[in-house]
Amino acid sequence: MTEKFPELSKLPFQVKLVWGATDKLETTYANQLAVTRTENEYYLVFGEMTMPVIFNPDSVPNEFEIVPKIRIAVGHNAMKAFVEVLSKYVSSIEEG
C-alpha cells in the first residue's frame, strides 16, 4: 500500500501497516452517498433513506428525506486508493 502513499516510501526505514481489531466499532447502515471536495480533501457523507409504505399512489410525497449518518474526510491519495480497492473488490465479487 505504500505505493498509494508515496510519503511512506520516503521514510528511511520500512513501515508495515497493521489493522487493529474492528470488533468494537459501531456499524452504521447507509444506502446513500454524497461526495464533495475542497482543495485538499474529499468529504464522503453517508446517509440513509427509508422508503415509506405507500398505500395510495395519489399520496406519494414530492420528496424523501435522506438522514445523514456519518461524514468522513479523506485526503486525495487515500481517496484514489479507496476507489481502486473498492473497484477491484466489487469486480472480483461480480466475476465470482
Can you tell me about this structure?
The mean pLDDT is 89. The chain has one domain: Nuclear Transport Factor 2, Chain: A (Roll), CATH 3.10.450. A hairpin with a 3-residue loop joins strand 1 and strand 2 (41-48). 25% of the residues lie in helices and 24% in strands. The two termini are 25 Å apart. The chain has a three-stranded antiparallel sheet. It is built from two helices and three strands, in the order αβββα. The protein is α+β, with helices and mostly antiparallel strands and 96 residues long. The radius of gyration is 19 Å and the shape is elongated.
CATH architecture: Roll
| DSSP summary: helix tally | 2
- Describe the biggest sheet? 3 strands, antiparallel
Please compute the radius of gyration using only Cα atoms: 19 Å
Task: Report the mean per-residue pLDDT as an integer.
Answer: 89
Low-pLDDT segments: none
What are the SSEs and their pairings?
Blueprint: H1 6-9, E1 32-37, E2 41-48, E3 67-75, H2 76-95
Antiparallel strand pairs: 1-2, 2-3
Question: What descriptive keywords fit this protein?
Answer:
3 strands; elongated; 25% helix; three-stranded antiparallel sheet; Nuclear Transport Factor 2, Chain: A; 96 residues; alpha+beta
Concise account of the structure shown:
The chain is α+β, with helices and mostly antiparallel strands and 96 residues long.
